[in-house]
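Q: Can someone sanity-check these two? First one:
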Amino acid sequence: MEKVRLLIIGGGPAGYTAAIYASRAGLSPVLYEGPEPGGQLTTTTVVENYPGFAKGIDSISLTGAMHDQAAAMGADLRRGIVTRADLSGKPFRFEIDGTPAVEADAVIIATGAIAKYLGLPSEHKYRGMGVSACATCDGFFYRKKDVAVVGGGDTACEEATYLAGLCRKVYMIVRRDVFRASEAMQKRVFNTSNIEILWNCNTQEVLGDAGGVTGVRLQRKDGEVFDIAVDGFFLAIGHHPNSDLFKEWVETDGNGYIRTDGVSSHTNVEGVFAAGDVQDPHYRQAITAAASGCRAALDAEKYLKK
């Protein structure tokens, strides 16, 4: 079994940034990119809010540049999925693609999170063409246009009010006749004039053409089916952090996000660090993921040199 000083799990902004910093610190990191190299960022198109790119940058180009920079610094970047972890003792042990493969003195978990979708074929068809799970990432493209937000919790209310500041009109599609959101968030929605709430509605289909989303087909609880015309369809029904592999040893919150100590990346297991969306239920941005990858690498460096 191969022995490494630092193993990084996950090939998104957090993982690649951790690899850059760890390489510069002489830690010879090995990074397994997982099932989706580039992470959630690759599900969007143009990234306009990452510093340094005045005209924006294609998401694939951005994550590709991160990958190439980590490799140039000396990180060992590998395709492969960590399918089993044993954090019960040191060195930590891992299976890659079902085969025992790596032991590590320290590990950075940067496996990200997955946005929850409704599971509609049309939703998948128009992903990146009007279907999005991040209003902060993609709302800019829908200025002065009409959009829909699915969900009735705090996240949905926050996304809707954010989009309302950019868009002409925002429809909120809520499957019940009440919000699950806090009173404060509900008041923000009710006090925003260009948000229309569609109660007791379920999404049947995302409508579109070669240019992308053109509308949504809804069904009310009483059976009525009707369409609304929108240019963007935003999912705000939650995220699932990719932490299941580590829950036997690493503490998580009620939603599965890995708990870290204060502003650091330390988990409850000495030598195990977490970075990016797998431990961030609040911001979920490429820039914050990259920043937490930096913290994790610095924390791992101190731990290994100690």
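And here is the second, same format, sequence then tokens:
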Amino acid sequence: MMNITKTKNGSNLSIALEGKLDTTTAPDLDKVFAENLGGVENLVIDMEKLEYISSAGLRSLLVAQKTMNKQGSMKIKNVNELIMEVFNITGFVDILTIE
């Protein structure tokens, strides 16, 4: 299960993720991206309460990153140790902007 909280302010969009980003929940995040990234120049994804990420979740982030490369910037913040390890192992630290 995952909760997605989004806050849009003009061309800025913040998305907070809580729970597990996996095969079951990644389509929900994909839908949020599909419906909300139009006109967004700055995307911030807060992972403070994200407990787990699978390859499906990584794919969702990659798709969002490719979209944002064309229209602005994407930052990921408050990544816990476990998810940072996944980002390191998969090479996503070189693809994503992580604060």
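A (reply): Looked at the second one. The radius of gyration is 12 Å. The chain has a mean pLDDT of 97.
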